[in-house]
Amino acid sequence: MGFDYQKPTPAKRPCGLKTATVFWAIAVGAFSTAADSALAQDTQLSGIVVESASQSQDKIDIATLGTAATVVTGEQLQQRQIRHVADALRSVPGVSVSRTGAFGGLSQVRIRGAEANHTLVLIDGIEINRTTDGFFDFASLLAEDIERIEVLRGPQSGVWGSNALAGVINIVTSDGKGPAQVRARAEGGSFETRSGNVSLRGGNDRAHGLVSLTSRETRGVNVSNFGFEDDGSRQVNVRAKGGAQLTDALSIDAKYHRLSNLTDIDGLFGAAPGAGPGTFGVTLDQLGATNETETEVWGTAAHLNFFDDHWKNRIYINDQETSLGSVNPAFGNTNQISDQRQYGVVSTLRLETPGLLDSTHEFTGMLENEDEGFLPNSDFIRRTRNVESYVGEYRGDLMNRLFVNGAIRHDDSNTFEDFTTYKVAGALLIPETGTRPHASYGTGVVFPSMFEQFGLLPGFFVPNPNLLPEESEGWDAGIEQAFFGGALIVDVTYFEQNLLDEIVSVPAGFFLFTSANLVGESTRDGIEVAATAKPTDRLEITGSYTYLDAHEPDSTAEIRRPAHSGSVHAALRFADGRGLFDIGAEYNGKMQDIVFDAFTFAPSTTTLDDFVLLKLAVQYDVDQRLQLFGRVENALDEDYEEVFSFNTPGIAAYGGVRVKFSTDDPPLETAQN
Question: In 3D, which of 336, 369, 362 has the Cα closest to residue 347?
Answer without folding.
Answer: 362
